[in-house]
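Hey team,

Filing this mostly as a record. A colleague (T.K.) asked me to run one chain through the structure pipeline before their review meeting, and I want the input and output archived in the tracker in case anyone asks later how it was produced. No errors, nothing strange. Just documentation.

Input sequence:
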Amino acid sequence: MSPGMDKLSLLRLAEMKRGGEKIAMVTAYDAPSARLADAAGVDLILVGDSAAMVVLGHDSTLPVTLDEMLLLTSAVSRSTRRALVVGDLPFGSYQESDEKAVASAVRMVKEAGADIVKLEGSDRRLSRVRAIVDAGIPVMGHIGLTPQSATLLGGYKPQGRTAVKARHLLDAAKALEAANCCALVIEAVPPPVATRVTQSVAIPVIGIGAGRECDGQVLVWHDLLGISEDPVPRFVKRYADLATEIRRAVAAYVDDVRSGAYPEDKHTYSMADDERERFDEMVSGK
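Output structure:
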């Protein structure tokens, strides 16, 4: 590991929370993205089950399997030096029982190299959280808009917009903290609610569509870089327009191939004159 690239720790995350230092997290799914994100200084890389939609072409997060998540998380963890890697437990890998949840979490850490596992849910998942933590694995909770439960929530809609529902989110955050979650993601929640949650728990709260007062923020790699061209949620800020540049580059390549402009001599490999002559003699004297 290079100097200045020591692995971040959970203790350091807690210190950042106490000291008011903002935490930067991105959701990425492959080795090149992980290397670039790590070198850019992000603190956490989440390998989210959003991979189902972003890279696997599904219409929701539900179809992605644990084996697929292990494959993607392995690629990220092998390419990350400083950031903590968070492996998302997909739908069906932990809902059935505490035992299944622990088995899935163990695979995520042992086979895929995740530092933390993430699961969705609030009071319905407390026993799962406790069981995984008891097995020695840190857990990040996820409240607010939880895509695995989008049907129950009425679709991909903001959460906590009534006083009763906001209070439920606050209670859920406190319960997850009491169950020894090391951090929380809070998604698509009005800023006043997310602010109260952030102030009410001692663990870091990472927001996405939840306002600036959270302890940190997370965005999907493809969204922030402008790689995906699908409509994005209102909380996404595009920091680049790579889709346009990628399209331009590939179109230029296609034009060069069709016109014969590529490859040029500089893109090829040389052969000694005497070896070329020998080769010509060998094939011409069949």
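Quick notes for T.K.: Residues 242-259 form the longest helix (18 residues). The mean pLDDT is 93.
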